[in-house]
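Researcher: Next entry in the queue.
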Amino acid sequence: MALRLKQPSVLPGFGLAMGYSLLYLSLIVLIPLSALFVKTATMTWPRFWSVVTNEANVAAYRLTFITAIIGASINAIFGFIVAWSLVRYEFWGRKILDAIVDLPFALPTAVSGIALTTLYAPTGWIGAYLEKWNVSSLRQSLDAWWLPVFEKVQSLPAGGWLSWPLPSDLTIKAAYTPLGVTIAMTFIGLPFVVRTLQPVVEDLDQGIEEAAASLGANRFQTFRRIIFPRIFPSLLTGFALALARALGEYGSVVFIAGNMPMKTEIASLKIIQRLDEFDYAGATAIAVVMLVASFVLLLLINCLQWFSSRRFREGA
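Model: Structure for this entry, 316 residues:
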């Protein structure tokens, strides 16, 4: 039997390519990450525990993870809508909108942070408008709109439809609040979801959707049974990328957050504060907590992605 020769490759052999890959990965990722653990190991366990469980640091962890998850979730929903619109519809300005999606990639993070703060500050274009929407005006608007309807059925409760136990002067504030942090993290994460989903949406066979419609499926059934299972793994990938970017973001968030202790401080800011105090071990300790927590979270997302991909292949 004649020996079958391997197909020639334009790239170097496996050994050389793997060696270069491991060297590059070590220099860029593994060695710097290992240095975090090595520097943190110089601390005693009581000192490490007191730093990572500090009340201000715990508040920063909580704010960072909650706002990052909310921002990535918003991007998963609206990023799919943007990707679908850019692929499936022809309209004036589509190429311009497609280019604008990459704007958070091109802008320096400090510039985007200043721009968001300018817009959402109490004196900004959007922030000043939001401050007008206090609870009192919202109650009046909804009561005026719903009052004729509820009077007809005689079911409007005394005191108006919105008789919530809230202060009447409660206003909507974006800048210098957790809402502002969420806005910044949503801004910087949108391109990851859109660019991840666009190729998948382009590869969807519209003939399958037409066949489903011809068999009596409505639009929701077509989306749930045909479109969503195919885009879900990529949607999870985009969600994970947006989440990872948001967890480590600093420049876009630090301006709009206001950096109020125990309220709007993010984990990246706590690391910078430790570095400014020349407490390098304390900075790496906070970084290690964020690294481990992020790794566990991303591992769970990847496991969910693998399970959904396997289930889709078995169903197909």
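Model: The CA atoms of residues 174 and 180 lie 5 Å apart.
Researcher: Noted, moving on.
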